[in-house]
Inverse folding.
């Protein structure tokens, strides 16, 4: 019987030669993928800058601060759309982030094991629903209910407060409706990311807190949330990136008014919805160029937000046991 030493190759020369062609092909394919993505981004940025150049040259920085929007007189300003985008996204985050983090905590630390995977699958399926479907549901189901109950009640009892004052649109179209529908849309995304971040918290954190006599709530608050707060902030920023760029659902419910209103119950417009609404009706080169510039502003904001979110999420990655 041959010994183990005799069965092993005597020298490195006896080992099978590595498949260098396979390695080179694999490296080349991955590099090609990166190059293609980079070229697509550069091409898209070039098209936006080229299309927006006439508006940039005509209006300069005043385009971002003007409230005028009149295609007849060629007075264009993006401030009402920036305002509508920021306010609707802020409303969405105020609603979605607490609900998402609460759901993620339940799925990670509180729910029975048999319940976690089915609930997670349902949440992931909600994220796959097309935005136009959410828009139709919001237009025909959510907005009439909001108009008849919450909006009417808020306007009646708190109408003296500017954010709830003014006449209410009969259809319920307003910035508040846009914020609510976007909140529903980003809930699954923020929940899924938050759940992964909470699962990345080492079990040693929880065990140490339990060993010191902490209650379940204290363990969640001190050992889990304090450890994962930067990553949860990254999840919220990712949700913000989605909220800023949402188009079809917001277009259906926001009301499409190029004015800045103090009341959240008044119609408005966002950067994405104005492009969707008016690009096909642009009557001249200047108006079309203005819409290109709005798209350029939106892309720039979204890129900055997502880069910040990725940096924050990477900062939470630590070695440790992941929970089921």
């Amino acid at each position: 019987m041959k010994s183990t030493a005799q069965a092993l190759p005597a020298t490195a020369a006896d080992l099978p030669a590595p498949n260098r062609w396979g390695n080179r092909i694999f490296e080349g394919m991955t590099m090609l993928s990166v190059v293609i993505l980079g070229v697509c981004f550069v091409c898209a940025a070039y098209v936006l800058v080229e299309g927006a150049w006439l508006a940039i040259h005509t209006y300069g920085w005043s385009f971002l601060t003007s409230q005028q929007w009149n295609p007849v007189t060629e007075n264009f300003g993006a401030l009402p759309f920036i305002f509508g985008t920021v306010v609707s996204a802020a409303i969405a985050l105020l609603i979605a982030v607490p609900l998402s983090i609460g759901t993620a905590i339940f799925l990670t630390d509180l729910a029975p094991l048999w319940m976690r995977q089915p609930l997670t699958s349902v949440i992931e399926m909600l994220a796959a629903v097309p935005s136009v479907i959410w828009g139709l549901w919001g237009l025909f189901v959510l907005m009439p209910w909001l108009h008849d109950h919450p909006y009417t009640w808020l306007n009646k009892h708190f109408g003296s407060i500017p954010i709830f004052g003014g006449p209410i649109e009969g259809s319920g179209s307003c910035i508040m409706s846009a914020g609510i529908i976007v909140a529903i849309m980003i809930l699954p995304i923020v929940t899924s990311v938050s759940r992964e971040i909470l699962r990345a918290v080492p079990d040693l954190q929880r065990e140490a807190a339990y060993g010191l006599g902490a209650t379940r709530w204290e363990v969640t608050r001190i050992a889990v949330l304090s450890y994962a707060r930067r990553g949860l902030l990254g999840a919220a920023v990712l949700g913000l990136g989605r909220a800023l760029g949402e188009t079809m659902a917001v277009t259906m419910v926001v009301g499409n008014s190029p004015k800045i209103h103090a009341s959240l119950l008044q119609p408005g417009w966002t950067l994405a919805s104005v492009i969707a609404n008016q690009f096909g009706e642009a009557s001249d080169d200047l108006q079309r160029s203005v819409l290109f510039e709005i798209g350029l502003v939106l892309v720039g904001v979204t890129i900055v937000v997502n880069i910040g979110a990725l940096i924050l999420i990477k900062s939470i990655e630590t070695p440790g046991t992941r929970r089921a």
